[in-house]
Amino acid sequence: GPIVNGTNDKFEIKSSPNKTTLYVKDLDINKDMGIYQCRGTNEMGSETDKIQLRVRSQLAALWPFLGIVAEVIILITIIFIYEKRRKPDEIND
């Protein structure tokens, strides 16, 4: 349905001369995803366009960081195992 300012606490539309922004409060990853149609109207006429809203989870930004942490842990483990295996060989010589 159409989103009009003040009719729903979930959506807020803020307009300035250059742009209009739609704010979605308490975003629901499942319910709020989808196609949104925007209609702009002025003296010259009216135009509509559609955008697709994709919602990422809050953890999405953490995945690259967690990947790096996992790589570091794996590297340290490999170095540690390699060092432990190398020392007994030197004693035998």
Automatic annotation (TrEMBL):
It comes from the Eukaryota. InterPro entries: Ig-like_dom_sf (IPR036179), Ig-like_fold (IPR013783), Ig_I-set (IPR013098). Gene3D superfamilies: Immunoglobulins (2.60.40.10). The chain crosses the membrane at residues 61-82. Residues 8-55 form the Immunoglobulin I-set domain. Keywords: Membrane, Transmembrane, Transmembrane helix. This is Immunoglobulin I-set domain-containing protein.
